[in-house]
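ok trying this again, last paste got cut off
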Amino acid sequence: MLHYQTHVLGPDHDWVVFLHGLGGNSNIWYKQVKEFKTHFNLLFIDLKGHGGSVDHRPELLEYTAEVLTEDVVKVLDFLSIEKAHFAGISLGSVILHGMHIYAPHRIKSMILGGAIIRFTRFARVLLKTGDLIKGLVPYMWLYKLFAWILMPKKHHQQSRNLFIKEAKKLRRKEFIRWYKFASTVPVIYPQIDTEKYLIPKTYIMGDQDYMFIGPVREDTVNDKAATVHVIEKCGHVCNIEKYKEFNRVAINFFKERVQEEKKEVPVPKPIRRLATIG
């Protein structure tokens, strides 16, 4: 099973499950822990080949959205979590789209930060170029190049450096598998049935996340359960760069879903007892 960490308030509180992006691990949520743990039970999962799941078995030749969804569901089952709220960043948002397809009944609501729905022309060229040279250069060179392209500005430095630091723990073979999985991203989101499964979701995007914000704005307009929140002067990893606004939006969103769920639960009517005739 995948490695995980928890912060538990108790059975009367909802769970929020956090999924990181490519090269990261649960550490990238360090700016969320303090605020979120006062409201919810928290579950942080390290995806295959990342963090504490670096030696996850069995090894697979390739990853699919269905397989990665099954990994997350196994952790939920082990912890007896029937349904939860989810937060994903970057490639973690792609896993959440996979869960929307293969395990929608386990999701109460979703926050998708720095979400990836499809690739712009520039992104496709970049990925194709990386695919051609990934066997010729050290994978960290490629990862650092992508990190600089995704987060080029001075105020992106903290999140860029953290992702590069954590990615050094990722082994080359895992990087290649995840890189191949990234090429399947454009075919995942179109499979979501947003009419049948109206799962409340908010996409939190930085206005400087130029590689991915356009597709998110364009492709989510037909999802009646989706809203998009844009953070000004912010890049791809918005949960780190503008964590205060990210936390405020995400926590309020989840708390509103909790309140809505409570309203939907029918209040049992008092039992009227018949008078005894004697």
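PB: full thing came through this time. The chain has one domain: 4-264.
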